[in-house]
Write a structure and sequence with these properties.
InterPro entries: Man6P_isomerase-2_C, RmlC_Cupin_sf. Keywords: Isomerase. The chain is α+β, with helices and mostly antiparallel strands and about 170 residues long. The chain has one domain: Jelly Rolls (Sandwich), CATH 2.60.120. It contains three helices and nine strands. Strands 1, 2, 3, 5, 6, 7 and 8 form a seven-stranded antiparallel beta sheet that branches. The mean pLDDT is about 90.
C-alpha cells in the first residue's frame, strides 16, 4: 500500500482533489463521488477493480473467489476533522475499514448505547459485523478510510438505504 500524507489545513475541495489524484495514480477508476455529506464524503470505485482494491488496501484479508465475484462496494470514506458519521448499523452487510491516511477514531458497540471512542491505527483493519453499532469519527486531521462491504445476502446486496441511524449530528433519518 502506497501511503500519502494529508495536510490538516486543506479545504474539503482540496482534500477531495488530493485523494482523487492518489486513486488515479494507483490506476483506480472512480464510479461515483459524493462531496455533499456533512461529515465529509466518499469515493466509490469501479466494482470490476475489487481484486486490485483488495490487494492494495486489504492484502491481509482472505476473500474467497465467490466473495470476490460479489458486489463489495469498494469505497474511500473521507471524514473531516471533528466530524462524525451517524451512530448506525446495517441489516444486510458487515464492513471492513482501514485507515490509510490522516487520523480518525471509531466507536463500536453491540447495543444501541455508543461504545468508547478508540483511535484508529494507520493500516489496521477494523471488522464490523452485520448489526454491530458503529460510528467513524474525525480526529485532528482528515481521515481517509478504505472500505469494503460484505453483503449478508449477495442476491440482495446492501446499499445506502441499509443504514439504521440511532443518532445523527445532522438530523438525518
Amino acid at each position: 500500500m502506497e501511503s500519502f500524507t494529508i495536510n490538516p489545513h486543506l479545504s474539503k475541495a482540496e482534500i477531495f482533489i488530493e485523494v482523487e489524484n492518489y486513486l488515479h495514480e494507483l490506476g483506480f477508476r472512480i464510479s461515483a463521488k459524493d462531496m455533499d455529506r456533512p461529515w465529509g464524503g466518499f469515493f466509490v470505485l469501479d466494482e470490476t477493480q475489487i481484486l486490485k482494491f483488495k490487494n492494495e488496501f486489504f492484502s491481509e484479508v482472505e476473500l474467497s473467489e465467490e466473495q470476490l465475484e460479489q458486489k463489495l462496494s469498494p469505497k474511500f470514506l473521507l471524514v473531516a476533522p471533528g466530524a462524525r458519521l451517524s451512530w448506525q448499523y446495517h441489516f444486510r452487510r458487515a464492513e471492513l475499514w482501514k485507515l490509510i491516511a490522516g487520523t480518525s477514531a471509531i466507536s463500536k458497540s453491540t447495543t444501541d448505547e455508543q461504545g468508547p471512542v478508540e483511535v484508529m491505527n494507520l493500516g489496521e483493519v477494523v471488522s464490523l459485523e452485520k448489526g454491530q453499532r458503529h460510528r467513524l469519527i474525525g480526529a485532528n486531521n482528515w481521515g481517509i478510510v478504505a472500505e469494503i462491504w460484505m453483503h449478508s445476502d449477495p442476491t440482495h446486496p446492501s446499499d445506502e438505504n441499509d443504514i439504521v441511524r440511532l443518532q445523527d449530528d445532522y438530523s438525518r433519518k
